[in-house]
Design a protein that fits this description.
Elements lengths: L11 E5 L2 H4 L10 H8 L16 H14 L4 E5 L2 H4 E3 L4 E2 L1 H16 L3 E5 L7 H7 L5 H18 L5 E6 L1 H9 L11 H24 L8 E7 L3 E3 L4 H24 L4 H9 L8 H9 L4 E5 L4 E4 L18 E2 L7 E2 L4 E2 L4 H12 L5 E5 L4 E2 L14 H19 L4 E7 L13 E2 L3 E4 L4 E4 L1 H12 L3
Parallel strand pairs: 1-2, 1-16, 2-5, 5-6, 6-7, 7-9, 8-10, 9-14, 14-16
Antiparallel strand pairs: 3-4, 10-11, 12-13, 15-17, 18-19
The protein binds 6-O-phosphono-beta-D-glucopyranose.
Family: Belongs to the glycosyl hydrolase 1 family.
GO molecular function: 6-phospho-beta-glucosidase activity
EC number: 3.2.1.86
Length: 465
């Protein structure tokens, strides 16, 4: 068959979800910050739908994995919930039911020929650790996270070969400490900077543990999943270019550089020092960050960021914010996913590929999330009861064509995962926008393959399209 876009051999064709967004809270002994937030403020969630049932994966994982197999995916990411696996956060004592559950899930993936990629943190901090220590503001929590990670390696490291320390740690910084879209919805730039540092430290400490325990010696790889939002200036004028450079350093490179190069971007450190908001760190910690970089990178890409120079002087009377250095820029004529309010700009896939190739040692990397959330997909159901999500197929094909261009120019990308295999719970947007290859009817939990599910099966089979 002649294909326009052929991908490298053994390419990962897969999809990603997370524990808190798919499992439901069944039999979970602790609450994450999201469980807690829903318990105290259910009206903050679209249609008042919380994480209690989600897509029922806890009960239906066997059938779900079978459906995922049916759409031809060869790899799949999910996460282990800290609040499920661990009974006692201080000692790392494991909840036996949870260990059994995750063992069954991982074995099911493997039995169905699907490579498991396991992530350790997907925004789901135990709320007790926020109340007791201030969550990621505290280095004590960093060390407790290492205890949890170690348990995961010991329990599942014989079968799981691909691990991620965090999913989108920058979203924790933005949602919880800057822009109020995740509980506890603080606006505190100084704390945000400390959290940013602590998350980097936690990732490096987990990698150190992984290596010290020897999991890298028997084929294990450990990485991090970052949401990269390439930043483009409004114009080539110096002040706009500088604004975009700051945005790139603060929102992308503050995780990308430590993860791959073992150090923070110098310009950013200089600004944070000058503004007196630099994190507290020790030389010993910096050395851990320096010496424990990732084996592979996962990139979640949804939208670009556009920046312009500030139009008015930033009012610092309420404290420091990164917004001191830029304004967001809404480019006239930009293409939008109006359901989600995100710009659609597939060219970024190429720019990311070239950035990794040229500035990050061409490290092995993959697209770990890319997707299009659409509201009201029922209106696209055809006479056979199938959602005809042609818009999603077009979205994927466009993004893949730019990724392909990057790969054909030498970028070391080994896979493409979409968000998400089965419609899942999306934080405060709950089930508003659907992303899956497989639809969920919430009241009955009946799951049906969409047209895009048939499409990806063909793409995976042919290794291209
Ligand atoms: C990513 C996250 O930010 O995007 C997922 O890793 C999330 O957890 C996905 O669900 C889609 O975004 P949203 O906000 O529409 O759920």
């Amino acid at each position: 068959m002649s294909l326009k876009y052929k991908f490298p051999e053994n390419f990962w064709w897969g999809s990603a979800t997370s524990g808190p967004q798919s499992e439901g809270r069944f039999n979970k002994k602790h609450r994450s910050v999201f469980d807690y937030w829903f318990d105290i403020e259910p009206q903050a969630f679209f249609n008042g739908v919380g994480p209690n049932v989600a897509s029922n994966f806890y009960n239906s994982y066997k059938e779900d994995v079978k459906l995922i197999k049916e759409i031809g995916l060869n790899s799949l990411r999910t996460s282990i919930q800290w609040t499920r696996l661990i009974k006692d956060f201080e000692t790392g004592e494991v909840d036996e039911d949870a260990a059994k559950f995750y063992n069954n899930v991982i074995n099911e993936f493997i039995d169905q020929g699907i490579l498991p990629v396991i992530n350790l943190h997907h925004f789901d901090l135990p709320v007790e650790l926020y109340e007791k220590y201030g969550g990621w503001e505290s280095k004590k929590v960093v060390d407790l996270f290492v205890i949890f990670a170690k348990k995961c390696f010991e329990l599942f490291g014989d079968r799981v070969k691909y691990w991620a320390t965090f999913n989108e740690p920058m979203v924790v910084v933005e949602g919880e400490y800057l822009y109020k879209f995740h509980y506890p919805k603080l606006v505190d730039g100084k704390k945000a900077v400390q959290v940013l540092y602590n998350l980097n430290l936690a990732s490096a400490k987990v990698i150190k543990e992984f290596k010290e325990l020897g999991y890298d010696k028997n084929g294990g790889k450990i990485g991090i999943i970052l949401n990269l939002t390439p930043s483009y200036p409004r114009s080539q004028e110096e002040k706009d270019v500088n604004a975009a450079k700051f945005v790139e350093d603060f929102f992308n490179n503050s995780f990308l550089d430590p993860a791959i190069k073992g150090k923070f971007p110098e310009n950013l450190v200089e600004i944070l020092n000058k503004d007196n908001v630099i994190w507290e760190s020790t030389e010993e910690e910096m050395e851990i960050i320096r010496n424990n970089t990732i084996d592979f990178l996962g990139v979640n890409y949804y939208q670009p960021r556009r920046a312009k120079a500030k139009e008015e002087k930033f009012d610092e009377s309420n404290g420091w914010m990164p917004d001191k250095y830029f304004d967001n820029y809404e480019m006239p004529g930009r293409r939008m996913n109006t359901y989600r309010g995100w710009e659609i700009y597939p060219q970024c896939m190429y720019d990311i590929a070239i950035n990794v190739r040229d500035n990050y040692n061409n490290i092995p990397w993959y697209i770990s999330e890319n997707g299009m959330g659409v509201e009201g997909e029922e209106k696209y159901i055809n006479d056979d009861g199938v959602i005809e999500d042609n818009y999603r197929i077009e979205f994927y094909e466009e993004h893949l064509s730019y990724l392909h261009k990057g790969i054909s120019e030498g970028s070391n990308c080994f896979g493409y995962h979409t968000w998400t295999p089965i419609d899942c719970w999306s934080w405060s947007n709950a089930y508003k926008n659907r992303y899956g290859f497989i639809a969920v009817d919430l009241p009955t939990q009946i799951k049906t393959i969409k047209k895009s599910g048939r499409w990806i099966k063909e793409v995976a089979k042919n290794n291209g399209f």
